[in-house]
Write a structure and sequence with these properties.
Number of helices: 0
Helix content: under 10%
CATH architecture of the largest domain: 7 Propeller
Strand content: over 45%
Length: about 450
Amino acid sequence: MRHILFIITVGVLAVAGKAQDYILVGEAYSAKVSKINPVTNTKIASIQVADSIGVPIPNLVKMVLDTIHNWAYIACHTANTIAVIDLNTWTATYPNFITIPGLGKGPIGLALNKTADRLYVTTRGPNNIQDSLNPLEIISISGTSFPPTLTKIGEVPVGKHPINVVLSHDDKYAVVSCRNQARIAVVDLTGDSVIYRYNYPNTTYEPEGIDIHPALNLFYCTTHGQNTIDLLDLDSMKVINSFPITYSGAPPQPSGGLFSPDGSIFLLSAQTSGKIYVYNTANPYIPIFIPPVLPSGGAQPHRGVFLNDTIAYIPNTNNTQPVGSVSIVNTGVTHANIGQVSGTWNGPLSMVLVKSSVTSAHEKSTSTPEQFILHQNYPNPFNPTTTIRFSLPQRQYVTLKVFDVLGREVATLVNAQITAGVHSIVFDSNGLASAVYFYRLETGHFVETRKLILLR
């Protein structure tokens, strides 16, 4: 097998000194949203977004970020509404709740499309009863000034207790976990109808957590009752595999999990056992558990958020007590729970990362990239050659390899010390069959994997 390649170094412009990214945390019992400074790992600000309802019913259950307007939307479960925060001015719609005529009771799952004009909400319907007709509701967002206008424009029945919803990368599909129906439902958002249902054998499975791989139409669905990670492939529109979660002692009963931004790690929160599981997903079709199991650092860990490709924040909140904590997990070469965010917490449950795009007027350009980046190959799909670009902020020992879907290495493109800059590799696929492949860039401080498609 012969792979012809060239390494071309080119100059780039980058800016330094960006304003600080931060993490938003929805505190379920106090009905506040708080900020975490990830540099000092401290709680630095809070804002009320709904009425505090006390123990034992959580209120703020899900939060999504509008990166176009810099707003955050929050599902207020017991207030039966959606709250909005203007992050530019740190202003909330509370106490003047947004009225959404026809919105069902107990909103819990929340997703926002990329153009920020459609919000998808799972509820218990108008009667606040869990049944097979519980819907995914479709909300139109209009207005460029705060607060926006939210209007219900449709709904699709999906199943009993639809607890989470995640959109496909192209916003054409919504995947919904219906916990008490024991069902994963796929909704076609172009026709507002369910086009695929995966029904588990019985209601003990309790599918709950959902996340989508950052580069593929591949969803990981975790079952709370049967302790599995199930793989839903939207390209073939079916569940293609199921992986049991290995454990000893108390069952994990995961509340959910999430992929790292580069797709190389899946971090699973085991709610009942109070543990964190780290999976290697370099081949995302075969997740491999990396021991040891980590302590979560608090009661009942839930789905968190990654700050970068290795550092994640996990909210720990007991479903019956107004307490909690936020743990910091390093998923690097030696993964570990490395501490907690300081501050008093009142049921931390939902988290999002707010990335800053603000730069100062006096900042100057530099010829050295600001960060490690592995770019998508172009063209893709390709035949027979394609170009892979990556950026290095400093001289590094670099490996760039290509793998098939079974995780077998099929080509080594780079295995050397590389200078800082932007580099391009021309990959010749001579000898390879038409298929999906993955290319993986690895340095001492960075790992990222992307998909490429060879079509003969």
